[in-house]
Amino acid sequence: MGVTMAGAKRGCLAVLAVLVLLLALAGTGAALLWQRQADFAATPVTPTQPSVVVASGDSFSAVLGKLRAAGIDEGHDLQWHWLARQLDATGKIKVGEYALEPAPSPEALLRDMRRGKVLQYRVTLVEGWNIRQLRAALKRADPLRHTTSDMSDTELMAALGFPGQHPEGRFLPETYVYQRGDTDLDVLKRAHAAMEKALAAAWAARADDLPLDSPYELLTLASIIEKETGLASERPQIAGVFARRLKMGMRLQTDPTVIYGIGSAYDGNIRKVHLTTDTPYNTYTRAGLTPTPIAMPGRDALQAAAQPAPGTALYFVALGDGSGAHEFSATLGEHNAAVARYLQRLRENRSRAVQQ
């Protein structure tokens, strides 16, 4: 009987040893699986496409299928599903386009999809552009969806919700961010709203003696200032010249308005015939402001138009030294002398160019 009890004891010990071994093996296996999952989650993928697009209604299996189609073959499907559950991403991935370059890890990619960190693009509207240049730039923007290409300017403004409004100058020149699926109309709505806000702020802060009767006149003057100089430091001075001329009833006599009136026929050279040919935009033949803006003014030009610099200057002419700056004069005699200096510099520059 003693022998039987001893054998039973040895048998129990053997079973216990086997159980311990099995548990150890199971623990080791679990640790290996956990490490393998961790390695998978942290290792950058190797896609063959730069991005992937998640559409409305896509299940996680559909998203995973798109990742596979984009060349991502890392990990088993079960690993992706497990990782998605760990990150609470299953069923919560946002619609949009996601960057696959530089290559993210599966964890980073799913976190981005969970947060909706979509790929963004930029289009820049440049200060001084007219509506034709603006629309051409939007037409070139990719992957922006082009829905207004066949619209006239009148149809465009109606689509924006502003029927009858002239489009020139109505959009604030800035850099706008968009994502795949957005349309050119989306960008224009934002640019229009931004200009409305900027114009209202400038009008609210206008000088007391400003010779303008409405925000639209301020927008028009700002557009002329924008086209007259690219130097932000000069805009208040130029605004001062125009404001004083408007108060005195002097014609603005500014070339950019004449060029705008010429339209697409302008070949880059403004001639005497252009200055003497009357159009609604010729400020040499007509007093006051032009009937509409002639370009998109930026914030600096709006501010300058609202708060012109004080002074006595009524004239200005380019220095002609390549700086883009102007010389300002209070009298016609001073201005004629400044013009003579400009022409002399122009002749000298041409002479040097021929000699080289």
Describe the structure.
The protein has 356 residues and is mainly alpha-helical. A hairpin with a 7-residue loop joins strand 5 (315-318) and strand 6. It folds into three domains: 42-118; 120-199, no CATH class; 207-355, no CATH class. It has helices at residues 2-42, 60-69, 77-86, 106-115, 131-140, 153-159, 184-204, 215-228, 235-248, 255-262, 272-276, 299-306, 332-355, and strands spanning 51-54, 96-99, 120-124, 175-179, 315-318, 326-329. The protein is 51% helix and 7% strand. The longest helix is centred in the first third of the chain and has 41 residues, at 2-42. It contains 13 helices and six strands.
List keywords for this structure.
single chain, 356 residues, mainly alpha, 3 domains, two-stranded antiparallel ribbon, 6 strands, elongated
**What gyration radius follows from the Cα positions, in whole Å?**
35 Å
Overall helicity: 40-55%
Number of structurally distinct domains: 3
| Mean residue pLDDT | 90
Q: Which strand order spans the largest sheet, edge to edge or round the barrel?
A: 1-2
Proportion of residues in β-strands: 5-15%
Strand segment count: 6
Instruction: Label the structural class.
Output: mainly alpha
Low-pLDDT ranges:
17-25
Enumerate how many helices there are, as a single number.
13
Query: What is the rounded distance between the termini?
Result: 121 Å
Characterize the overall form: elongated
Major beta-sheet overview: 2 strands, antiparallel
One letter per element, helices H and strands E, the order comes to HEHHEHEHHEHHHHHHEEH
